[in-house]
Amino acid sequence: MTTPLRFIYSGAINLFATDKISKMKAPTLVKTAATSVAVTLIAALMTLSGCTGKFSKPGPDTEVPPLAPVEYHPGELNRETLYELIVAEIAGQRKEFDLSLNNYLHQAQMTGDPEIAKRATYIAQYLQRDDQLLEASKLWQKAEPDNPEPYLISASLLLRKGDFTAALPLLRKALHHSDKQTLMIISAQADKFSPEEADAYIKLLEEHASKETDATLLTTLGILYGVQGNNIKALQRFNAAIAEDPDHQEAVIQKAELLRSQGDYRQAIKVLEPQLAADQPDQQIFTLYVQLLFQSKQTKKAVKQALLLVDTFPDEPQLTFYTALLLLENEQVEQSRSIMQDLLQRYPDNTTPHYYLGLIEQHEGNTEEAISHFLKVKDPNNILQAYRRIGALLDHPNNRTRLQNILQDARGSMPEIDIQLYVMEAEWLNLHDFKDAALSILDEALQLHPDDANLLYTRAMTLDPQDISLIEKDLRQVLALEPDNSMALNALGYTLTLYTDRFDEAFELISKALALTPDDPAILDSMGWILLKQGKAAEAVGFLQQAYDEFPDPEVSAHLIQAYHAAGQQQQALQLLKQEQLKHPDNEFLIEAATSINAPLD
């Protein structure tokens, strides 16, 4: 005798067919299922044992007949299904979620039952198992083809994964039920569509819009047209969305953004103004309004509205901070300073405002006040930049002791960034001609961190060129740690080019660096220079020209001048030399280039 599957799910599994599944924690979900399902499954097991409900004890000579092979019939329960579902629920209760999900998936495949497929889908969705979620939702679609939910679940996942073509037919099936969340996902991903994909989605949504008007749908169409660059149709759809729902905030924002992209700031402001009449205007719309006021050069009004924005949302520190930055960007220094100081009083553990107050004081020439603020920065995103700013403010050899004391104290209190601080100190010392002190501080750092590639590379770049063996040793160690470090490959190759005759080895190193970072002007310059050393002037010109176009540094231009001359392009060489001498009259590289091509020194 078989038992209908719906018996199992009456009042039990159906509990998990609701939207509550996404809000329940997995242990709670499975425990609830196990409690309610166990009773019905046991009852079903008794039913499977015989319709009379009576058990007879076999005698000692009684032979137990073998069980008949399990047969699956749609909508009916068998012993294998019963067993796997019980195991799945108990496994879930024990937090063995993989076993639970696999059993549900297997039984969804075998039974074709929509409730089992739904349960498998929800479990996969909760566990964020994308491949199994797609598999389970496809089984659910097959078992219940008129239910839009599994199509929407699959489509949403495919959209997030960027598989826009595969998501389209699923949306076509589900869209007549409308799903605002899926439309929002389409909007968020729209800028990643190819022109063909955007066109296919537009056709689908236009077809749907002709049958059912919806502001979210029209807004999504407007965004897609905007991605295509069809601003006229985009504006038409945004207008239609606002006509359908004047308070549809996304349509209002998108229309204002479109007008802003066209430089029509004042018209964009007019679009937003009706939304600001509410007692509590939308934060995003209000912020966009202030931005547009600044962009339209209505500075006085913009400052007033910026301060009102802060007052309207007093418990939004991120918004307050952004407004302070917006004021600073638009040269409203005092208002920005006041807001930053207020943030420090209200949220003393957030030191980010100190960084920007330091910038303000630095800009106004208040060195000591700026340093005081920078020293108080503890925010990981700004702390290294704060210390670099201090180094720039103390940019004089006489400040050596003070700077070194500051960085030493910082390393003691923040050992997690001591490597970066060591490098910073060494670079400052080297820049101010304290080479021996720079090498000493790097040696100290490498005693603590002997295998740090950054420290080794910095020391190699600090060593005197005559110490070629030491430079090579450090760079070789960097490459042992990081074989694909293009900076180290290039540095070693260029060093060998300049100070040895090991040109073949240098070429091999630079070639590998260039393959890893093909657009780096420093590596392009190295490749051009080694080719010139190898007597391949015509090839050298091509690489050096690329390097010069990207980074017209005197050293690069000096190399290009010599390559032009070697390639027989004397006029180009002289013309570039004269041009560069006007900009850098005393540059040592240009002097060397002029001497090498026998050109007069201007």
Automatic annotation (TrEMBL):
Stored InterPro entries: CellSynth/LPSAsmb/PSIAsmb, TPR-like_helical_dom_sf, TPR_rpt
TPR repeat intervals: 215-248
Keywords: Repeat, TPR repeat
Spans through the membrane: none
Pfam families the UniProt entry points to: TPR_16, TPR_19
Entry superkingdom: Bacteria
PANTHER family (UniProt xref): DOMAIN PROTEIN, PUTATIVE-RELATED (PTHR45586:SF16), TPR REPEAT-CONTAINING PROTEIN PA4667 (PTHR45586)
The name this protein goes by in its record: Tetratricopeptide repeat-containing protein
Lineage: Bacteria, Pseudomonadati, Pseudomonadota, Gammaproteobacteria, Oceanospirillales
